[in-house]
Sequence to fold (260 residues):
Amino acid sequence: MTERPVIEAKDLDLTFQTNDGPIHALKGVDLNVNKGDFVSFIGPSGCGKTTFLRVVAGLEHPTGGTITVNGMSPDEARQNRAYGYVFQAAGLYPWRTIGGNIKLPLEIMGYAKSEQDAKIAKVLELVDLAGFEKKFPWQLSGGMQQRASIARALAFDAEILLMDEPFGALDEIVRDHLNEQLLELWARTEKTIGFVTHSIPEAVYLSTKIVVMSPRPGRITDVIESPLPRERPLDIRDTPEFLEVAHRVREGLRAGHAYD
Fold:
């Protein structure tokens, strides 16, 4: 028996009504994301990448088509704490320590204090920040703050991790390091990850599946199943296999502009 997709979108549309008229953010999106997939969404600004992630999270509601998350509506999935969400900015409260920031969703969900402490220690270890729980955000670099944000999203052990361009503001050296760490984290936790990016090398390096989107209205122009092995040193980016996938992504982005 085939396992049901973790995320299943069929003919999904989303139109925002504004004072200047309707904005068609998503149109006819069909996509299946399976358990353990690492799916990157790539496309030009305004193509609906973040909007799709927000629909999965139940933060936006489609105006046509259907979407399920773990067989439920996105709103039900959110209530069942099916996902953690990592935003573009780390979004850490400056008056709370790193441990205190990670603890916040656990407090809201009513975990016992002993359980909170155990979960905080576990996720800090996962993101290589053990020993930093008493530091404040301003005492950490940008990359470390973003790792703390990932730890917070992992704290309640949701099956799905949604990441909206989390490394976009970081320099290339830090970004490369965090890409490596994210792949290690994914291998250890076996989460299903949805990841928004503007970077072709980042999308190809991280993903088992790359979703290429067109300019608004956001359509899927290509879904690329990666032929790369799951274990990927950074220098895999110099191989012919990697460059071939990157070329196909670039061609998909170019084809998307034909909709303009």
User: Anything to note?
Assistant: The chain has a mean pLDDT of 90.
